[in-house]
Write a structure and sequence with these properties.
CATH topology of the largest domain: Rossmann fold
Largest sheet: 5 strands, parallel
CATH architecture of the largest domain: 3-Layer(aba) Sandwich
Structural class: alpha/beta
CATH class of the largest domain: Alpha Beta
Helix content: 40-55%
Radius of gyration: 19 Å
Oligomer: single chain
Order of helices and strands: HEHEHEHEHEHEHEHEHHEHH
Number of domains: 2
Number of helices: 12
Amino acid sequence: MVRHLTKISDLSKAECEKIINKAIEIKKNPDKFDTTLKGETLLMIFEKPSLRTRISFEAGMQQLGGHAIFYSIKDSPLGKKENIHDTAKTASRFVNLIAARVFKRQDIWDLAKYADVPIINMLDDFAHPCQMIGDFLTIKEKKGRLGDLKIAYFGDAYNNVTYDLMRIAAMFGLKLDVACPKGAEYTPEKIVLDEVSQISKETGAEVNIIHNAFEAAKNSDVIYTDSWMSYGILVEKEEERKKIFMPYQVSLKIMKVAKPNAIFMNCLPAMRGYEQTAEVIDGSQSIVFDQAENRLHGQKAIMLFLRGKL
């Protein structure tokens, strides 16, 4: 049976831990894995641009002995000239893995429905599972554990990163406070809230949506934020959004409410003076570049897992 990774909860907690532990091993001994995917090919379909995602996947595949193909669909939208069924079936004849970074979740779901090789969601409007593997790898490195943690997220919660952060926190039985403005356009969709609630019943996790940044930060081990200006936000809307989100900016005052040894995370790109202050992202508690690097190691482990080579 072909496994796909469309959202982080496609994996079990045990599988997440297995991938993260393998990523740690790969990071420590990269030469040990330099022929693991020899002769194999990854097709990377990009509708949305990316720095970290493209470089980390392309470098990761090369470092595993394989080859990555970058294919932009900016000028030839997915499912337009050729339907997704035919795209998935055809590409499956040529490559061993397909990764896609797209605007709409339905495109990822359709690719997974019709492909005969594993599909990796590099980001859509519903999930960002590769980011979560890299993030929790980083948390384990810094905290030495993935249990008994309090995480606080600040900012836009109508957001793929937030959704998968909520899912993985629920899977690991953690406490997560999501601090965001009120309003349907800033808070998680009901389908996500329902999924997270169901997972939490089984694991004892506490995932809360709140509207007070300082309350969320209290006693947190991890302070996390993401861009307020994701792709698709109109330039003329940016100033309005900044005003709405400013009460959720991660500042030194927010960091002081968290635990003294709390770490600061942002999946990047970051805008200083927006979702966090420069003092925070460039300060001693920030681990954003370790977090970015770990996308490489985490994605290597994901590819090995989906190819049955862990």
